[in-house]
Design goal:
single chain; Rossmann fold; eight-stranded mixed β-sheet; globular
Length: 264
């Protein structure tokens, strides 16, 4: 993690090769490498099932299919190159990776725009979107029928919402809002993994403790890891990035997916 790469003079082919050989954090921390990794994905679109909304996503396929699938849900910035690059990494690990877009193609680069875009996502449209994509994956011959959801921050909250509203085999939350009541958590059908930070003032310790208590009351399997870090510690472009905790949380994520989706 934190490896530095001199990209001056590299061709696109060289960038592709470099992105493929570097640790994930190094790719995510470098906009050029993240863009190249993201550009290998295929943009797709569907109409949602309940509201007939046009929605889009970025699909990365592994070398061997059918394979288990992972839906990735973006931070408040939107579906940017970073999220797509994580999808490319999951495809390298053998998963069908679908990075979905809840912002209708818009991507924020400043907090004001991100707040506006995040606030415009209605619960009904968001649920319709995630459920429609999961159904699409389960019917896709590239997917073996197993699907997990994972997300960060805004997307972390939506990863939990996906676990509640759509049957998924597992879900992963990176410092996302976790305030759903017991009766809603009772609808979850698969295990949940949560990565949270002790210094996070947004998704704070009382919220996480309440989530653990509610999941226990609902009788649902939950694994929570707390890191001596701050919100967005797994994002290499964040000022709060922590390379050691990011690496540890990613390894735990990979292990969790392998355990609950089967070795990819």
């Amino acid at each position: 993690m934190g490896h530095q790469t001199d990209l001056k003079g590299l061709s696109r082919r060289g960038l592709l090769k470099g992105a493929a050989s570097l640790p994930l954090a190094s790719v995510l921390a470098n906009p050029a490498l993240a863009h190249v990794a993201a550009s290998a994905a295929t943009d797709i679109s569907i109409q949602t099932q309940a509201q007939d909304l046009p929605v889009r996503a970025s699909l990365s396929l592994p070398d061997v299919t059918p394979a288990p699938a992972v839906i990735l849900i973006h931070e408040w910035w939107g579906l940017n190159d970073q999220i797509k690059a994580v999808g490319a990494e999951l495809a390298k690990l053998g998963y069908v990776a679908l990075s979905i877009d809840l912002y209708g193609g818009e991507v924020a680069t400043d907090p004001q725009t991100a707040t506006k875009l995040m606030g415009a996502v209605t619960e009904d449209a968001g649920v319709d979107t995630v459920k429609s994509w999961i159904n699409w994956l389960r019917q896709n011959p590239a997917c073996n029928g197993k699907v997990a959801a994972m997300g960060w921050c805004f997307g972390g909250g939506w990863s939990l919402e996906t676990a509640i509203e759509a049957p998924v085999d597992a879900s992963i939350i990176y410092y996302g809002r976790v305030t759903a009541p017991v009766e809603r958590l009772s609808k979850i059908t698969g295990p949940v993994l949560g990565h949270f930070a002790t210094k996070d003032q947004f998704i704070n310790i009382p919220m996480v403790d309440g989530f653990k208590a509610s999941m226990e009351a609902a009788g649902k399997p939950l694994t929570v890891h707390m890191y001596d870090a701050d919100h967005a510690f797994a994002n290499p472009t964040s000022a709060r990035y922590d390379d050691e905790d990011a690496a540890l949380s990613w390894q735990r994520t990979v292990d969790f997916l392998a355990e609950h989706l089967g070795d990819a």
